[in-house]
Specification:
By secondary structure, the chain is mainly alpha-helical. The protein is built from 18 helices and 4 strands. The protein folds into 3 domains: 35 residues, no CATH class; 239 residues, no CATH class; 173 residues, no CATH class. The strands form 2 sheets. Strands 1-2 form a two-stranded antiparallel ribbon. A two-stranded antiparallel ribbon has the order 3-4. Helix 4 crosses helix 5 and helix 4 packs across helix 17.
Length: 484
Amino acid sequence: MSLLTSWLPSGVSAATCVWCCLGCPGAIAMGAEAEPATAAEQVVPIDWARFRPYERVAPGSRDLQDCARLLRNNAFYNLRWAPGAAEGIERGRGVSGRAAHDVIRPACSAAFGLAVLLKTGAFDEGAVGCSREEALARTVRLIEGAAATHRGQWWGYPWQSALWASQLGHAAWLLWNDLDPQTRGRVAELVEAEADRFIDYRVPYWNGKGGDTKAEENAWNCAVLSVAVAMMPRHPHVPKWKEKCSELMISAYATNGDLENPTVVDGRSVRDWLGGYNARDDGSVVNHGFIHPDYMRCIHLNLRAYVVQPLAGQPVPEAARFNVPLVYRCLVTKHWPSPPYSKPGGTIYVPGEPRIYYPQRADWGRHHYVFYYLLDAHVQLLGLDRDLPHRAEDWMRLRAKGLLEMQQRHADRRIFADGEMDTWPGREQTAAHGLGNALLLLWLDAQDLPASGEKWLSAPEDGAAKAVHPPPPSFASRHWLRPQ
């Protein structure tokens, strides 16, 4: 008997064997080289059996219920917007550059928020005015259209495309079993391509010069690396993706003082990760030439790993929370006197109110509470508001109430009235991204998942295939987010 025929299935001759899969034992035994796995073949779908649906965990969380209501209202609006948006993408297959910013980015954001609502079980047909089947079809159509236009060319807008790819990839991964093979392939390829271009990327720094910090930019670029690691845990580039992800996270809101910081984060001292800094020593950042609260709260982009890695049973990078307490303390406690700052002066977080005080200017409008709400949720669940005069939970609930009141003003349940935010057409879809993140965060926290005992950079690359790593005893009886 030949080596090949000894591996054939019973009753199959060498002449008729049609085993052509990569795992053919005969081919392996004969030393044949297997073709490299495609990006789609590297994807490990989410094991939804590990999680309890919304209706089983929501009764124990008022905040989760409030967030679900906000996202359902947002979905009511975006599900009516989605067909026209998808048609526009399909008609303009070559959409790129600034046009992609106004077309592709909103599609990626809305698809993510809708996917979260559908997969957590928080979707309610009566509340959104649409059947689940139709909502799924509209969401999938957005994913298909956006993925088809990437073509390895970053939608012609590489400066921001990694942010969009992280949202689109996350949305598609949530709905993986509902996508056709072609769309899966396109999504996996674009996530892989966007992650790979950062492997040898030189991280930028502000270093106190000029009017634009690189904080937000570094934070949004780390997100696609986090998503790529979760989706494709056995990909050969995972170690490089992880390392660059940590570097971007730490660099995003590093201060000048951190250049001498010996604290070990993700296996290396902070000072050894850094080549510069992007935040002022008090945690504030400069963008568009002035102190800009909206770019301070963008530290939530680092924290997004807390709604990505747990879905794959992976540890969250320690770098994800680096300097979050510093930035949040600045938002809550730093007093900006008037003059020289804008009237009436005070703290950026206004006690007892959902609104934000802008010490100098607000070029995106003064009513964009969604991402402050998201940051509050992260800080509250991570316990990073200790020793502050006001708790993150109180801010989160104030903003949830304020956002609901804003939605209730409009029959279509949009958040923003004319003139309340910039005129960019994707504002309601950007809100879907923020609210989707908040819902997924609160839903995951309600699961009582055990924390992983692994470290981010040392965890085995096949972690997603094994569910959550067995935790040490100290992690056994607490929420995975909350400190003891």
